[in-house]
Amino acid sequence: MIPVIAFRNDILFLSIILILFILGSAIMIARSISLPIIKLRNATIKVGEGDFETKVSINSKDEIGELAETFNKTTFRLQTITEELKEREEHLSHFYEATLDGIVLHENGKMILFNKALAIITGYNSEELNSKKIQELIDINENQIKEEQQQVFSYETLCYRKGGNKFPVEIQERMIDFRGRMIKATVIRDISERKNVEDELKSERESRLSALIDGQEMERQRFSRELHDGLGQELIAMKMKYENIINQQCGGTKDNLILLLEQFDKVIDEVRRISENLMPSILKEFGIDNALKNLSKTFTTLSEIKVHYDSIGNFDKIDDKTKTYLYRISQEALNNIAKHSEATEVNIQLIELSGNLRLIIEDNGKGFNFTPNFVSKGNGIYNIKERANLINALISIDSAPGKGTVITIKVKLNT
Predict the structure, then answer these.
(1) Which of 79-83, 236-240, 397-401 has the highest average model confidence (pLDDT)?
(2) Measured at the alpha carbon of residue 397, what is the angle toward residues 392 and 400, in degrees to the nearest 5?
(3) DSSP E strands: which ranges in 108-200?
(4) 27: Cα within 13 Å, side-chain hemisphere
(5) With contact defined as beta carbons under 8 Å apart, do 337 and 346 qualify?
(6) What is the arrangement of strands in the sheet containing 166-178, beginning at the earlier edge strand?
(7) CA distance 149 to 145
(8) Distance of alpha carbon 388 from alpha carbon 386, whole angstroms
(9) What are the strands, taking DSSP E only, across 262-344?
(10) Measured between alpha carbons, how far is 393 from 407 in angstroms, rounded to an integer?
(11) Cβ contacts of residue 146 below 8 Å, gap of 6+?
(12) Maximal C-alpha separation, the chain
């Protein structure tokens, strides 16, 4: 009996030992599997929180070891990419904030992102800008915005400061990909200083040009007087002497002298014409209306082009400079018509209405392709534009092949 009990106890003991061994082995195997997985889980959480320096130390050569190695390589790559992105963002941020130009990203008018410079040039703070639409800051030129999304649009317009003051700006705009959608990126550059310099240069240039043209007019007046009072009078005196000589002659000699006298008359008429063209006395004595009327008649006589002149309004308030410049513009236009247009008729109108003066010169010639950037081969159109600018006149030229040309000068009179 005792041996049986002892044998049973041995079996129980061995069974317990075996169970404990199996249980221990199972626990060890489970830990060898679960611990790496737990490490990977914890490391994944840290990486998800932005800690890309996290590494997993698993030295096994099984699938879990391979997974850990891949995880470490991935986190290293993520760390490298993140550092590169941070560096790039820092560079962009420095540039974005350092520039003096206002930069704004906007979609359907709503501003999504803008830099400090925009607040500086507009006078609004960030909170105020967040409540604004881009249209409230700048006059957007929709006519210059094209459909090509990658093309840069550039134009000049006005920007509004806080308080309502306007100032000139240069706009550059294009479509960009922002977080998966296309929005507009606009650069706003304050060009007030540049415009001031341009205006000063323009004013100085116009002042010098005006002085030059006025000097030319004075020289024309002087030369006209010398022709009329000097050479003209001398020729008339010589004519009178020849008339006396002719009266004393007879036969063939008298006939020759009569022919010579006719040549004298032609020379005197030519001197008068040149003198009148240099400085028409009718302009100073009888005003722009009569001067243009006389110019039209003279041009019709000297050319094969019929000039019709009409006027309406009161021209008494036109200053001498404006009269002279409008007369010169008319002369230049008629000379251009005679040289280039192949016209047969010209209509000139001088209209004054409520202090606004309009000079219209229209021909039925062959016309030409005129654009804002048109470059004339001669000086005619250039001279007309320059003279118009010097009296603060607006000028428009409308022409097309086969449709003639219309030049319109608009002047606001000082009342």
Answers:
(1) 397-401
(2) 175
(3) 110-114, 153-160, 166-178, 181-190
(4) 6
(5) yes
(6) 110-114, 102-107, 181-190, 166-178, 153-160
(7) 10
(8) 5
(9) 306-312
(10) 12
(11) 153
(12) 195
Compute the CA torsion angle 363, 367, 371, 374 (nearest 10 deg).
Answer: -100
271, β-bridge pairs:
none
CB crowding 373-408: b at 16 or more within 10 Å, else e: eeeeeeebbebbbbbbbbbebebebebeeeebbebb
Residue with token string 């000028």? 395
Q: What is the pLDDT of residues 147-170, one digit of tens each?
A: 444 466 788 889 999 888 899 999
Q: How many other C-beta atoms are found inside a 10 Å radius of the C-beta of residue 303? A: 15
Pairing between β-strand 306-312 and β-strand 181-190 as defined by DSSP bridges: unpaired
Instruction: Pick 320 or 11 by higher pLDDT.
Output: 320
Determine which helix (DSSP H) or strand (DSSP E) holds 333, and give its type and residue range: helix 320-336
Burial of 366 (0-12, 13-18, 19+ CB in 10 A): middle
Domain boundaries, the chain: 40-88, 99-190, 195-279, 283-415
12-41 confidence digits (pLDDT tens)? 767 777 776 676 666 666 555 666 667 667
pLDDT in tens, 76-96: 777 777 777 776 666 566 666
Percentage of residues in the chain with pLDDT exceeding 70?
Answer: 62
Rounded alpha-carbon distances, angstroms, from residue 158 to 81, 106, 145, 189: 42, 18, 16, 11
Q: What angle do CA 155, 160, 162 make, to 5 degrees?
A: 155
At the top level of CATH, the class of 283-415 is: alpha beta
CATH class of 99-190: alpha beta
Q: Please, what sign has the CA dihedral across residues 285, 287, 290, 292?
A: positive
Question: Residue 135: enclosing H or E segment and its boundaries?
Answer: none
Question: Exposed, middle or buried, 31 (CB in 10 Å: 0-12/13-18/19+)?
Answer: exposed
CA torsion 67→70→76→77, rounded to 10°? -140
Tokens of 101: 């130009």
